[in-house]
Description:
By secondary structure, this protein is of the alpha/beta class. Helices cover 50% and strands 7% of the residues. It has helices spanning 9-12, 25-28, 33-40, 56-67, 81-93, 114-126, 139-142, 145-148, 161-174, 176-179, 189-195, 199-210, 223-232, 234-237, 244-256, 260-272, 277-292, 298-313, 319-331, 337-350, 367-371, 410-422; strands at residues 46-49, 71-75, 103-107, 130-135, 152-155, 182-185, 218-221. α15 (244-256) packs parallel to α17, α17 (277-292) runs parallel beside α19 and α18 (298-313) runs antiparallel to α19. The radius of gyration is 27 Å and the shape is globular.
Amino acid sequence: MLNSNNIPLPERMRPKNLDQYVGQEHLVGEKAILRRMLETGNISSFILWGPPGVGKTTLAQIIATKLDREFYTLSAISSGVKDMREIFDKAKSNSLFAKGSPILFIDEIHRFSKAQQDALLGAVETGTVTLIGATTENPSFEVITPLLSRCQVYVLKSLGVKDLDRLLTRALAEDPLLREKNIEVAEKDALFRYSSGDARKLLNILEIITSDISEGEKLVITDKLVAERLQENIAIYDKNGEQHYDIISAFIKSMRGSDPNGAIYWMARMLDGGEDPLFIARRMLILASEDVGLANPNALLLAQATFETVHKIGMPEARIPLAECAIYLATSPKSNSAYMAINEALEMVHKGDNSPVPLHLRNAPTSLMEELGYAKDYKYAHSYEGNFVDQEFLPEGKSGTKFYEPGDNAKEREIRARLQKNWKKYGY
Length: 428
């Protein structure tokens, strides 16, 4: 039996039930979807998508315990098809005596190959196992469509300050080792800032700065102390690649801020640390759309070509097109106008706007629809000079609503001039 002294703090503090679980109220709070599943006992396969340290593994374990189901766990990094089939055989042989299909938890499911996912699909379809997958990557990109269609995807969020504060208070009050020490938390900002919404990281930091307290000594935790201790113990702090999200954030912000040197430095850090080059390429695809946008539409084409090239050639040669793309994106003019436009439109729609489509914009494939006025008075733009005619494209009551605001760059100044000429009502 392991001495509690040898068990890391995050493991000692791992919640045993939903009442101890911190964060993700949208999933486990009162009347939330996963809590209702547990209460009814009706659970279907799903995938938990979120950053590290937000409780994906813990949530799966709590669900299995609550439902009294067999619980198998696999890591996509170290497990293959053979390991899965062994679990499927066990599940089938125990099916007569089980209270329900066993839960198979697969960590980092996005790292499973297509062949591995195909093998998993059959067991999920037949109900041999109930799958709970965990991923830090968008499952739409990494999980095969047939498997994804049989799983709900639930998004887990980074923990907020209130969640981290609750976790800190609980650890100091309930952990048997910390409870014995004389610890005063005078300042919390650095603790929470370095944690970056990651519960595991917060507890690791707490363990680092409290590990060498002598018996009877009082420790006062301040922002300065936290910063000093982390510098001294950076190797411990960064074990298992916990700075992954900090470094990708620095990489993105360097490109957004038009600094090619910062972008190349942080890319080198990621590549040297063994980061998946496709992960880097995918992030550059997003940045090309979100931050370069209409200021340089070719950026998206180059980012897409980079992704395909990296996929084909792999490392170490992939470092060259990755670097080329990063420098190109960093030195490109920037515009987030499309990003802002779609967000504003979505905000309006999310508030409940479901205005009917104006009759002249509707299709009229049947004579009845024609009689009802569908497509009547629609003006075909190509029949007019300059391929433009002034007509209403927004629902009734929304005329003149402007979502798109051109950025201040050469390309979008041309767009603005054209919009000013054609669309007086939008006020460009």
